[in-house]
Amino acid sequence: MSSEALTPDRILEATEEVLRRYGPAKATVVDVARALGVSHGSVYRHFRTKAALREAVTQRWLGRTEELLAETTASPDTGPGPEKLRAWLARLFDAKRHKAGDDPELFATYSALIDDSSTVVERHIDILLGQVGRIIEEGVQAGRFTPADPAQTARAVFAATSRFHDPAYAPVWSSEGIEAEFTAVTDLILRGLRP
């Protein structure tokens, strides 16, 4: 048995390792407990079901991107409007590419888990849309964007850039010319938002 206190964070870290090793189809709560040196009942005290554990680990994974992008949203280093939106979109694309390229096994695992965690994904998208909406609103107030409904505009920007953040497009993220494509789409969006 492990002498270290069992916390939700420790369980989630172990769950990531187990998912990386076995994949979502074969990973079990017993595997997670074994990796931690505890009984599976101890894991269930923190996460009542296997589904709850999978949702929590998916939320943790998506939350890392949310936190990274929140820094860009709040940063005074980029000007309001176009500069901040470009930086936010670039950071989202970069984060997604790193997740897919640096650890393809875990990325594939999370892509499978996301299919089972629709409420977690919906919440994640809502958070990202909220961040883009704040950037749009800030840009409108600074006179850098045309006055428009920030929420509706955020949805349009998010949809227009889906090729650069939707996991379904991960196979093209390392293709030749993807950077130029990203720049062209971003430039087009920013021209469309200009007053």
Gist?
This protein has 195 residues and is mostly helical. The protein is 72% helix and 0% strand. It has two domains: 1-48, Arc Repressor Mutant, subunit A (Orthogonal Bundle); 51-193, Tetracycline Repressor, domain 2 (Orthogonal Bundle).
The overall average pLDDT, rounded, is: 91
Major beta-sheet overview: none
Shape field: elongated
Determine and state the CATH class of the largest domain: Mainly Alpha
Q: Which CATH-level-2 architecture of the largest domain?
A: Orthogonal Bundle
Find the CATH superfamily of the largest domain. Answer: Tetracycline Repressor, domain 2
Rounded to the nearest angstrom, the radius of gyration is 19 Å
Share in helix: over 70%
Overall SS class: mainly alpha
The beta-strand count equals 0
What is the CATH topology descriptor of the largest domain? Tetracycline Repressor, domain 2
Beta fraction: under 5%
Helix/strand order = HHHHHHHHH
DSSP helix count?
9
Poorly predicted segments: none
Distance between the termini: 64 Å
Instruction: Provide the number of structural domains.
Output: 2
For this entry, give a set of tags.
Tetracycline Repressor, domain 2; single chain; 195 residues; 72% helix; transcription; mainly alpha; 9 helices; Arc Repressor Mutant, subunit A
